[in-house]
Description:
single chain, globular, two-stranded antiparallel ribbon, 26% strand, 110 residues, two-stranded antiparallel sheet, mainly beta
Amino acid sequence: FEAGSLAALGGYWEFVLGSTGRATVTSTGSPHSGTSHLLLDQTATYAAAQQAILHIDLLGKTNVTLDFWQKEFGDRAEVTDDRVQISANGVTWYTIINLTGANSEPEYQH
Length: 110
């Protein structure tokens, strides 16, 4: 997210936001490395999940890995909202990790 803005990320990213949802590339909140990170939050009372979807074509690729750092900023108790999912077709999604409990801390986790 070092591009500094959502627009500069290009067409690979899609953001699906609730009525009060917000996706920003920001330097606030102590990015893990570099000067910026993606922040998904809401501007008012919780209304819906915020989603950042990375579209990539892995046809013919092998040994592909997903690597990321994440941390929480004062979350609520939604058990199923914070998670990382994958999909081969954009319709059927599979959760690969729930970002709850021990996976939901105010320090970066890898």
